[in-house]
């Protein structure tokens, strides 16, 4: 089965039809998605700004990141579920939307970037945990991370425009 | 009436001078900046409210968390006021008549007043050694106000 026919099949499933045609699912998904953006984005931004030495300089880096870990994962899980359901509400529409695929690409790169930080430079965090400003390699990660998440907001908004 | 209409909406045949009314792509671009701004604003406010509820940064004093977050919350407010005013300028005459827009402005005013009075007092250094007490419900009210501003914003977009 090709991906196109998969999308065609998906758009005819009862769940997809319900998400598309019932009055409440879409606005509820949108509201939950946007609130989660604020929670996820807020914790990501403050974590990155701490690495850059722009906030909470007297609090160890691992403590700032550790405080947010649970909140961040909860918000991210909600974003993934609500985002997937929105995509499922109209698979054929998103199949044809170039900005939707660009958004997913940016999300993938942002995720890879976070993983490279987590399993790379962050493993030596004990050496620079107390430093007001993290080493240049960690700061570079944080800068790229901020850029990618902002790019995802632009690409996500543009998905609705195209 | 006609004069008022001309002032609010411009002459019918005129090409709009304001970029946001002239090119369709300006609106989503400015709106994207507006979304980044609310993420910064509501995100940092939420972290402070969670701290007031004792749900994060328990080892740091409330006033220390507040002091560290304040410049970023204020940056968020500034971005929102500028981008929001510009989005508004694209179709001002229309927006002022919409219930969702009026509700949002009222809720925003309440949220800002609450933030710079009650929350400022709740996060003052003088309060650090006092029990949380009234500051926990205040944090819940703050969260509720900012989320309702956000909901009213979505409501405008869905009309």
Summarize the structure.
Chain A has 162 residues and is mainly α. Chain A is built from eight helices and no strands.
Walk me through what this model shows.
- The complex is a heterodimer of chains A (162) and B (159).
- Chain A is mainly alpha-helical and 162 residues long.
- Chain A has one domain (3-161).
- Helices cover 80% and strands 0% of the residues of chain A.
- In chain A, helix 2 (14-21) crosses helix 4, helix 3 packs antiparallel against helix 4 (61-89) and helix 3 runs antiparallel to helix 8.
- The longest helix of chain A has 29 residues, at 61-89.
- Chain A starts with a helix and ends with a helix.
- Chain B is mainly α and 159 residues long.
- Chain B has one domain.
- Chain B is built from seven helices and no strands.
- In chain B, helix 6 packs antiparallel against helix 7.
- Chain B starts with a helix and ends with a helix.
- The relative contact order of chain B is 0.14.
- The model of chain B has no long low-confidence stretch (mean pLDDT 90).
- Classes of the chains: A mainly alpha (162), B mainly alpha (159).
- The A-B interface holds A 27, 30-31, 34-35, 37-39, 41-43, 45-46, 49, 55-56, 58-59, 63, 67-68, 71, 150, 153-154, 157-158, 160-161 and B 25, 28-29, 31-32, 35-36, 38-40, 42-44, 46-47, 50, 56-57, 59-60, 64-65, 68-69, 71-72, 147, 150-151, 154, 158.
């Amino acid at each position: 089965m090709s991906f196109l026919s998969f999308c065609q099949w998906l758009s005819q499933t009862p769940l997809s039809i319900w998400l598309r045609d019932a009055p409440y699912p879409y606005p509820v998904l949108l509201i939950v998605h946007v609130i989660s953006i604020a929670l996820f984005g807020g914790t990501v931004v403050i974590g990155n700004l701490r690495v850059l030495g722009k906030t909470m300089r007297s609090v160890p880096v691992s403590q700032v990141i550790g405080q947010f870990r649970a909140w961040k994962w909860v918000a991210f899980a909600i974003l993934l579920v609500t985002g997937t359901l929105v995509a499922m509400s109209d698979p054929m529409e998103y199949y044809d939307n170039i900005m939707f695929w660009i958004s997913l690409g940016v999300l993938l790169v942002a995720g890879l970037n976070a993983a490279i930080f987590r399993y790379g430079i962050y493993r030596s965090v004990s050496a620079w945990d107390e430093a007001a400003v993290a080493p240049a390699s960690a700061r570079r990660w944080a800068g790229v991370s901020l850029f990618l998440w902002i790019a995802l907001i632009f690409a996500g908004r543009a998905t609705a425009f195209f | 009436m006609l004069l008022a209409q001309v002032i609010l909406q411009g002459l019918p045949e005129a090409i709009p001078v304001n970029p946001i009314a002239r090119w369709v792509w300006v609106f989503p671009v400015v709106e994207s900046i507006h979304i980044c701004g609310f993420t910064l604003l509501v995100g940092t406010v939420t972290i402070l409210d969670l701290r007031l509820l004792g749900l994060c940064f328990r080892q740091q004093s409330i006033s220390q968390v507040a002091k560290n977050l304040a410049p970023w919350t204020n940056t968020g407010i500034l971005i929102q006021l500028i981008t929001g005013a510009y989005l508004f300028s694209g179709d001002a005459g229309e927006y002022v008549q919409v219930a969702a827009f009026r509700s949002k402005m009222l809720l925003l005013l309440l949220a800002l007043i609450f933030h710079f009075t009650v929350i400022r007092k709740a996060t003052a250094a003088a309060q650090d050694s006092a029990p949380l007490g009234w500051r926990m419900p205040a944090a819940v009210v703050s969260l509720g106000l900012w989320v309702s501003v956000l909901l009213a914003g979505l409501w405008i977009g869905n009309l």
